[in-house]
Amino acid sequence: MQRGSLIPAPALPGTSLQKACKFLVAFCALHLCVTLVYYVSGGELSIFQYFMEHQQHQYRGPVGKSASLNRFQSALSAQGNATPTEESKPKGELPMCPETSPLLVGPLRIEFTISVSLEEMRQSNTEVREGGRYTPKDCTALQKVALIIPFRNRDQHLKYWLYYLHPILQRQQLDYGVYVINQDGENTFNRAKLLNIGYAEALKEYDYQCFVFSDVDLIPMDDRNIYKCYSQPRHLSVSMDKFGFGLPYNQYFGGVSALSKEQFQRINGFPNNYWGWGGEDDDIYNRISSRGMSISRPDGVTGKCRMIRHDRDDKNDPNPKSSELPFDCGDGHTIPRR
Ligand SMILES: [Mn+2]
Predict the structure, then answer these.
(1) Domains of the chain, with CATH numbers?
(2) Nearest to residue 94, comparing CAs of 41, 43, 40, 135?
(3) In what residue span(s) does the Galactosyltransferase N-terminal domain sit (predicted)?
């Protein structure tokens, strides 16, 4: 008797299990292949990324008058991505820099015996742009600060200033620009007039809100002495080595000072008629106090700074206006003025 002709052969008990196993093996193989392709040729992923980035780049046109529109479109295109790249974020989205920069290191060793070269400085400050400009990358600076340096024939001092100050100002997370205002010719020096010129010229270039006026030969010894503006005009060089790390007299406002745009306008800028060395800083002090403002200062430790020793420059003799009064040391003593 033929078994099969009468009753259709019943499916073997293992058949459906076999099918399931085959399917499972096929699925595993496929999965393995996909996984292999994914890991072995990492290029697949980067091609995907290329398309994502390329799409974003299309919306980022040249920076110009339509920059804000481009940024707006870029923001729109970025909405589709779960994680927009840092680059595609419009600048306005950067968080504000913290009140106290986490990059500060405190006391600094400042010396003027080492040799410094402009080329080395350029290489170690790659983030500083043409024109001595710097803007923090990861956050929006709390202030836009113009540093104004009155200048003539002090190349070596300027090198030290740039060598020390650029790293400090970057650690202070300021959006800053450095302006060296050179007095042409050999006539009598006029520091305050150069500072006024620096204020006006810097404002032509950028929307600065704060102006730090610094002598070229003064270097802070602590990066917590922030070169920014405060609610009152700020005197920064409060503890100079030249004066035994103290103030020569209480009203002293020379060296390095900071005024906001409003504070500067309120005192109608600095006097233009102080020719020669000294006096203009006291005039500025009087302008400030006569407008009802007071002087803000860092403490004597944070405010320590070094002055590069030098002889009196030619054509910068003491201004007769400045030599009439002796210093009031604030402790009952007076010393001859400077
Ligand atoms: Mn000096």
Answers:
(1) 43-93 (no CATH), 118-335 (3.90.550.10)
(2) 135
(3) 97-229
**Residue 48 CB burial class (10 angstroms; 0-12, 13-18, ≥19):** exposed
Is 281 one of the catalytic residues?
yes
Report d(CA 135, CA 175) in Å as an integer: 4
Nearest by Cα to 238 from 217, 257, 259, 214: 257
Q: pLDDT means per 10 residues in the chain (338 residues)?
A: 48 66 68 54 39 35 30 30 42 88 98 95 97 97 98 97 98 98 97 98 98 98 98 98 96 98 98 96 98 98 96 84 47 39
Predicted model pTM: 0.70
Annotated catalytic residue within 175, 217, 222, 283: 217
Is 307 considered catalytic here?
yes
What phi, psi does 153 have (nearest 5°)?
55, 40
Kindly give the distance from the C-alpha atom of residue 325 to the centroid of ligand 1, in angstroms, as a whole number.
20
On whether the CB atoms of residues 132 and 201 are closer than 8 A, the answer is no
Structure tokens at 59: 């919306």
Q: How far apart are CA 157 and CA 160, in angstroms?
A: 5
The answer to whether 52 and 88 have CB atoms below 8 angstroms apart is no
Name the nearest CA neighbour of 255 among 213, 313, 223, 225. Answer: 213
Q: Rounded to whole angstroms, how far apart are CA atoms 331 and 247?
A: 11
Radius of gyration of the chain (CA): 33
d(CA 179, CA 213): 10
Choose among 302, 300, 309, 305: nearest CA to 330: 300
Distance from the alpha carbon of residue 310 to the mean position of ligand 1, in angstroms:
7
217 flagged as catalytic: yes
In single-letter form, the type of residue at position 123 comes to Q
Give the whole-angstrom CA distance, residue 92 versus residue 15. 66
241 is catalytic: no
Q: Which two tokens stand for residue 317?
A: 């003799």
Q: How many alpha carbons lie under 13 Å from residue 10 in its C-beta half-sphere?
A: 3
pLDDT of residue 312: 84
